[in-house]
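input
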Amino acid sequence: MQLLIDASVLMLAYVFGSIPFGLIFVKLISGKDVRQVASGRTGGTNAARAGGAGAGVLTALMDGFKGAAAVWLAQAVLPAQHWLHVLAPIAAILGHNYSIFLTERDEHNHLRLRGGAGGGPTVGGAVGLWWPSAFIVLPLGALVFFGIGYASITTMSVALIITAIFAVRYALGLATLPDVAYGVIAFILLVWALRPNIKALAEGRERFHGWRPGRGTGLGPVAVQNTPTRPRERERGIDKAGVAKAVGSKKKSPRKATASRS
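output
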């Protein structure tokens, strides 16, 4: 009976994590299908690309709520089983990344579950386990996002920050080892989901977001990417001074012609 209760809690956490809030909010706000935009993921960053900042913020909040609600459910049903409190948000992350509501067939006719990368529910799970972590994770995550400028790096960094928080608390006797394990497992899941982004980073193709000078920001539909620069005028054999000179001579030539006729 106990095993059945545990499995039911984890299943509910997975199903709730599977709700594609990004798809819902983007569809309601802009009419677009977020799966057809940029990375095709349903998380907050891609929702912002597809539907604007409002869709992105709403998606991020609800994705975070998935992880926190999974912890609260496990705590309410089985308050003494802390390992279940840790596994519940992991189930929500899996549901978010591989949503039962976003099934499709790939080019090889294999069943595929789509979703996000897991950053939102990872943060939410940490908040559910220890709510003050929000005041550490969110500012540091924002600093990484706008400072380094890549959403994929931010997502992975969030899991590392959470791991560090619980590791320090464990060293101080304020947390348990399963809390630290939560951060480690979440990090592994995020890295696995972000494999295409890691490859794009290595190849210099990853979309940029942030405040670095000369790069602009990419929170809207036009994220800055590595685009070829326009060729310099001197490489086209055109000199600005020379062009101005030629234009000036053309303007003067009719006068010269008139003078010669006279």
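quick obs: Confidence is low (pLDDT under 50) at residues 216-247, 252-262.
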